[in-house]
Write a structure and sequence with these properties.
379 residues, alpha+beta, Penicillin V Acylase, Chain A, eight-stranded mixed β-sheet, six-stranded antiparallel β-sheet, 13 helices, 14 strands
Length: 379
């Protein structure tokens, strides 16, 4: 299982605790992204410069989140621009990634090595309302598909605010959040999207947004908060709350479109579903599996007889019906490591019980293990 790191106190103190306890994993994550950025024609020094450009934006959005990032850098003994680059890595990556390697990859990789940097289609998510579950609670689940090397950087952060509010997130070390839930029973999952407008301006990094959203109590709060923001890259946040409200929040540089969940399971992969947003969908060539994956998870949930259990969703996330393009994606040995996407981890969250069930590898190979937020459960 991934390390469970407890953080509390002020924002800077929480960051320092994160940085100190995850120092080796942060260093490994930096090495992974240095190689990935080099593949795209961006040196690690260049990535840091780009990351630094988000410092003021994050501070304006939420000073406490910037203080937490500063604390991570201090605790891990890294420059703050490196931690900013990690948290803005989705926005720094070129809109066309993955594609052909940059023609100067060798030169940039050599520059990274000289500087001491070793050279070394994405997610399926589903939300189910309480009326459709055996537990009578909202279930929110995701396979996180990304570079396999990042499995060794993942951590579980269990944080507590001074107010007493708490949250639990599975994330890459050094990053504020990714998949998570909070003490109000609100949870978030992530699907990277691509629009034709990505990269035209800077905006709120999605991994910063995910951490900010973990302060919400309800889906309605998350919609209202996200609608006020500007973005430079596209993503979908599939979110749900303990009351049973579910929604897909699709945002791009053009703004927010959202889809509210109905009686059926709400499923999402890596392309826009809202009609207005879909008009600006970028080429799906970098993520050929997104349409068949959505069709497959929709078919599995649609054909399900009776109510959904945690085990039912786990079984669906283990599906390997389409080979290397399946819901549960094995690594394709024919692909370079910089573009070889696989299922790094899998999560099923019970928002009523405030429990995250985590598979720390391909879910077809390992068991899901429960990790509780640790709050007293509502009556």
């Amino acid at each position: 299982m991934f390390p469970l790191i407890e953080i509390s106190g002020s924002a800077r103190e929480r960051g320092q605790q994160h940085g100190m306890q995850a120092q080796k994993r942060i260093t490994r994550s930096i090495a992974t992204y240095a190689r990935l950025f080099a593949y795209c024609g961006i040196s690690w020094q260049g990535a840091q410069r780009l990351g630094a450009g988000y410092r003021e934006l994050i501070g304006d959005l939420n000073p406490a989140l910037l203080a937490e990032i500063e604390g991570i850098a201090s605790g891990a003994g890294r420059h703050i621009d490196e931690i900013l680059a990690l948290n803005a890595r989705t926005e720094i990556l070129p809109p066309g990634y993955p594609g052909e390697p940059h023609p100067e990859l060798g030169k940039i990789a050599a520059a990274n090595a000289k500087a001491g940097m070793p050279d070394w289609g994405e997610c399926t998510a589903v939300a189910v309302k309480p009326a459709q579950t055996t537990t009578g609670t909202t279930l929110l689940a995701q396979n996180w598909d990304w570079l396999g090397a990042q499995r060794a950087t993942l951590v579980l952060l269990r944080g507590r605010e001074a107010s007493g509010a708490s949250w639990l997130t599975l994330t890459e070390a050094g990053m504020l959040a990714k998949i998570g839930l909070n003490s109000s029973g609100f949870g978030v999952c992530l699907n990277i999207l691509r629009s034709s407008d990505d990269g035209v301006r800077a905006g709120v990094p999605v991994h910063v947004l995910l951490r900010a959203l973990l302060a919400c109590d309800k889906v309605a709060d998350a919609i209202a908060y996200t609608a006020k923001l500007s973005f430079g890259a596209s993503s979908n946040v599939l979110c749900a709350d303990a009351s049973g409200d579910t929604a897909a929040l699709e945002f791009s540089p053009r703004g927010l479109e959202f889809i509210r969940g109905a009686d059926a399971a709400l499923c999402h992969t890596n392309h826009f579903l809202a009609p207005a947003a879909a008009q600006h969908q970028a080429s799906l060539a970098p993520s050929l599996s997104t349409v068949p994956r959505l069709a497959r998870i929709s078919a599995l949930t649609g054909a399900h007889q009776g109510k959904f259990s945690v085990a039912d969703l786990q079984s669906m996330l283990r599906d390997e019906a389409d080979g290397y393009l399946s819901i549960c994606r094995k690594p394709d040995p024919a692909l370079a490591p910089e573009i070889c996407v696989e299922t790094v981890a899998s999560v099923v969250m019970d928002l009523g019980k405030r429990v995250m069930h985590v598979a720390p590898d391909l879910p077809s190979l390992v068991d899901y293990l429960p990790v509780a937020l640790g709050e007293a459960q509502p009556a």
